Amino acid sequence: MFLAYYLRSKSGREMMKSLAQGSTRYNLSKQALLKSPLLLPRMPEQKAIAALLSDMDAELAALEQRLAKTRVLKQGMMQELLTGRTRLL
């Protein structure tokens, strides 16, 4: 799990790009990948980092859902006000 998060990070993508060959389509050979210096924290730290990042992903998903619901509510309120069905005093 930690490795998946690392490979999606900016530094992970840059490392993969530096190992890749090609100009239009990148090709990453198994040999290049095995020769790359990849420094990983110890397993307990990897698990802690991955758990924290997973919790953050879940929180972001919940916030995105809340934002979507708020936008729908705002749109409905605007329609009510702009059509005159609801008046402000």
UniProtKB/TrEMBL annotation:
Alphabetical list of InterPro entries matching this protein: Restrct_endonuc_typeI_TRD, Restrct_endonuc_typeI_TRD_sf, Type-I_RS_S_subunit
SUPFAM superfamilies the UniProt entry points to: DNA methylase specificity domain (SSF116734)
GO biological process, one term: DNA restriction-modification system
PANTHER family in the cross-refs: TYPE I RESTRICTION ENZYME MJAVIII SPECIFICITY SUBUNIT, TYPE-1 RESTRICTION ENZYME ECOKI SPECIFICITY PROTEIN
Family label: Belongs to the type-I restriction system S methylase family.
Example of a GO MF term: DNA binding
Record keywords, A-Z: Coiled coil, DNA-binding, Restriction system
UniProt feature coiled coil, ranges: 53-80
Species classification: Bacteria, Pseudomonadati, Pseudomonadota, Gammaproteobacteria, Pseudomonadales
Every Type I restriction modification DNA specificity domain range: 2-66
Name of the protein in question: Type I restriction modification DNA specificity domain-containing protein
Organism superkingdom: Bacteria
